[in-house]
Each structure stands twice: as structure tokens, then as C-alpha cells.
Amino acid sequence: MAQKLIQTQEQKQIQKLSQQQMLQVRLLEMPITELEQNISMELDDNPALETGNDDFDMEVDCSQDREDEDFDTQTEREQREEALDSALSNIGQDDEMEPVAGNGYVDDGGERVYAAGESFYDKLKEQMMDVELSDEEVQIMEYLIGSLDSDGLLRKQLIDISDELAVYHNVYCDVDKIETVLKKLQSFDPPGIGGRNLQECLLLQIDRKEDKQMAQLMKTVVTLYFDDFKRKHWDKIQTAMQLSDTTASNVMKELTRLNPKPGAAMGETLGKGTQQITPDFIVDVNDDGFITLNLNNGNMPELKVAPSFAEMLDNYKTNRDSLSRREKETLIYLRDKVGKAQGFIDAVRMRRRTLTITMRAIIQMQERFFREGDESDLRPMSLKDIAAMTGLDISTISRVCNIKHVQTQWGLFPLRFFFNDSYTTDSGSLLSTRKIKIALRDIIAKEDKSHPLSDETLAGIMAEKGYNIARRTVAKYREQLNIPVARMRKKTH
Q: What is the pTM of this model?
């Protein structure tokens, strides 16, 4: 019986410990504009939270005597304090930001806004207003939208999304529930959004076709002859489906009009400069090559626990033995509001520190790019690399880099831009796949368009330049660069 009691207590500790962590994670993944809105809402909801020029991280003792705390209350408080102390120890106790990569740090606190193309994530969230969703479904939908790749496809497994929703957002739902919400997302514009692979993306677009007879033929091709379709073996498809030349030609034309990257298409449609994006970071390089990192505070105010609440709490605690029932209820109310206010301040401070050390690590890895602005100088870098440098979890790094931007003298970039895979050469050295793609793109740009180079020929030329990659790899990188096959690039004069 005693053993069973210990197990129950441990479960309660874990569940309650995650509440502050969830708040930290939720604020961490927000871009600066969304954080400003969240702070404004918190200020409206909690009278114990105020803005001002006093110390940002003002600490207030909102605990009561230990004998008045039940086990759960005391455990929650102690565990939250331990969690915060542990997290802070990983990144240093000093609130002042450290120099970036041996250079300087300047935080002017001013809001910086830059024009950029409107994010398709924002447009998808707007479309949520037209769909009937429960509160739980709203959370799931927002998480699904945030999990989409830049091309609009959802490559993350639903079981992983289910686990992440439970851990980071306290939303417990099975895969079937997530799939139901995903189906609603897949009904959004542009068609194909939310497809879990290229095949599903195309099928979603075909389902929107008004010509149902043509749609059925297209669906048959994509469903039964997908490999031949990808290789553009139209003759094989025509023979297998017993199509006339005219019908086969029409089906081919309709299929080639489908968009494999609906997310990118939405960005192109919206155009550049249609929305103001506020970068979360500003990186500058002076004439001496000195790199400075500014964490953009935007319109985010300094936060503090309201002095009036702190004073009332102290007064009530001082005279606790003589308090009436109503006054004790007031004491409980004050302690709750002050505790939540301090917890929110801690979470904002934690976000600030985590973002800073993560961006510092990115700058350290990609220092040459920040100095020179040459995309080919980007080193191979993964989330795991930054996690190892900072001591943070990979999921934390992922959330820092999701839907956040950095302004540099070379332009405005999403943080995901700086991450790229590596390729190991025959000599054992690592090359950035982006550098290989740039080399491939340059070779194709200089080719004779009347006699475009095949993938096999390109592989040979790449090998001569030191990039010993297979023909299949050339084809993959070429497709990622949105460059068609040789026969589609041919131009007659």
C-alpha cells in the first residue's frame, strides 16, 4: 500500500511540474508580435502583473508558511523553483546578455519592422475563422499549421504531433482526432495544403477539379501509375490506361498544372511587401567586422509584480494569525495572482535568454555568412548541432527557430534558412548540401540551352568540381531547385 502511495505522489509532481514548463514552451515558440499580444492579454487578466521601469525580474515571496501548505501545493512550488533554477544554470545566472561570438551585444529595445512577403501560415490561420472548430480543435489546427514545411506539406508524423501536443500544450488527443482536424486544414486554400506527401498533395488538388471525368482520369494516374508519372513516362501510362492520343495529351496537360508546393505558391501569389514582418533578431556587422546581436523587444513592456499586491500580501502574512475567514480568502487570492504573475515574468525572461543563446550559436556556426552574405558559405548545420552547443534540447531549438526571422545587412531571413544538411566527400570532409545545390544551379545556368545537360552529364561535371555525387542525387537536388529535366529545358532558336 505504501508503494502505491509513492507512485501516486510522483505522478502528481510530474503533472504539476509541466505547467510552468508548458508556459515557457508556449512563449518560446511565439514570434515577437504574437508575444506582445500575449503579454497584453496577461496584463488584462492578472491585476498583479504590471508594467513599469522597475526591475524586470522583481522577485516577491508569495509562499506561505510550510505548515499551512498541503503536500501538493508545497511540492508544486518547490518543483517549479527547482526547474527554474536548473534551467537558469544551463545558460548562466547573469541577466545581462553576453557578447555574440566574442563580439558585442546591444539591445536598444526599439521596435524594428521590415517589409517581406506575407507568410502563408498567417493566411491559413485567417481561414480558420470560416471553419467551425472546438477549443481543442483550434489548438490542434494551429499546431498543424505551425508544423507545415515552407512548401505547404506536412511531413511530420501524426503520432509525433500527438505526443508533442500532450507534452508541450497539455492537449491529449489520439491520431484519429488529429487526422480529423487535418482533413479540415486540407480543405483550405490553396488546394494541396496539408498533404503528407507529394502524392496526397496532388490528389487533394485533383479533388477540387470541376470536370469530374477528367479528375477521375488524373486520380487514376496519380494513384496507380505514380512512379511512371514522376518519371514522365507518358507513353507507358497511355498504354496501360488505353487512352487516345488526345485524351492522354489533355490529362498530361492538366497534371502538369498541379502545384507540388502549394505553400510556396501562396507566397508568390501574395507578393512581396504585402505585410510587415517584425524580426525577432537583428544582426549587424560594423566596418571592423564586429558582429552585434540585438534581440528585438518591439513594443514589449518591462514587467513587474504590482507593488500594491506585494504589499497587501506581506501585510496579510504578517497578521495571518488574526485574519478573518474573508481575509484568509483574500490572502489565497493574492498569493495565487502574485504567483502567476511571477511565473509569467520567469517564462518571459527564460524566453529572452533561450532565444539569445540559440541565436549566438547560429551566428558562431554561420559567422562567415553574416560577414560576407554569400549563401555558399553556409556550413552544414542541424538542430542537433545547435542543441549540443547550447545544452538545450533539440525540441527547444526547433521551437526557437520556428516562424522567427533575423534581419541582417544581407536581408531578412527565417531562422530555418541557416540549417542545411551535410554531404560527406570521398576524403571524409563535410560539405553543405546548399553549397552543392548552388554549384549545380550555376552549371545548369551556363549550359547550352539548345543542348541541355542530362543528369548523368551533370553528375560528371560536378565530380570534376569536387562534388562526387550520384546521378540520382543530382536529380533530387535539381528537383529541389525547381529545375526541370533536360528535355524540358531545351530551347530551339
A: 0.49
